[in-house]
């Protein structure tokens, strides 16, 4: 599916992702029993994860998406975030779950949390597939986490490098020439 020479190392194979996504979906379904979840996918990295996760969520849920762009060089977060696409719906009094592909410095999620909190949701929680704990610059609450990973640049399963590799069904470290 992808040229071998692009892969430094496969970090998380497809079957492990599937198992974890199912676990997260089950946990979320338990925790939100009797409620309706307003899932917010952060474009574009979280789309693949959210699409799979949604199929393991058994309580009522809706999906909306936000697109944000952080100023500064593309792979480093500055924490100054610009909204490129806002939500289509009002989240006031809704039980909101932010779904992210990866939390790195935490600056993006911190900004999102503060911005969404000001819109007065009934609850606001976070779910990320990947977590690079060592890279954290600001403490952010993560309610549901798939995998803690080391400080390496990873792609696949929604994560990209220059827009590529989102379609690859596993998560891998890209070989740098
Ligand atoms: P944060 O504000 O530093 O937490 O930035 C998170 C964003 O940085 C993610 O949503 C990704 O777009 C990007 N990012 C951080 N680490 C990686 C990586 O290893 N691969 C691909 N994108 C990454
Ligand atoms: Mg992202």
What does this protein look like?
The protein has 177 residues and is of the alpha/beta class. It has 3 helices and 9 strands. The strands form 2 sheets. Strands 4-3-2-5-6-7 form a 6-stranded mixed sheet. The protein has a 3-stranded antiparallel sheet with strand order 1-9-8, with helices on one face. The longest helix is centred in the N-terminal third of the chain and has 18 residues, at 14-31. 30% of the residues are buried. Bound molecules: inosinic acid (IMP) and magnesium ion.
Properties at a glance:
177 residues, alpha/beta, six-stranded mixed β-sheet, three-stranded antiparallel β-sheet, 21% helix, 32% strand, binds inosinic acid, binds magnesium ion
Q: Any chance you could write out the topology, listing elements then pairs?
A:
Layout (H helix, E strand, L loop, with lengths): L6 E6 L1 H18 L5 E7 L3 H8 L6 E10 L10 E5 L9 E9 L3 H11 L5 E9 L12 E5 L5 E2 L15 E4 L3
Parallel strand pairs: 2-3, 2-5, 5-6, 6-7
Antiparallel strand pairs: 1-9, 3-4, 8-9
Helix pairs in contact: 1-2
The chain binds inosinic acid and magnesium ion (MG).
Magnesium ion binds next to loops.
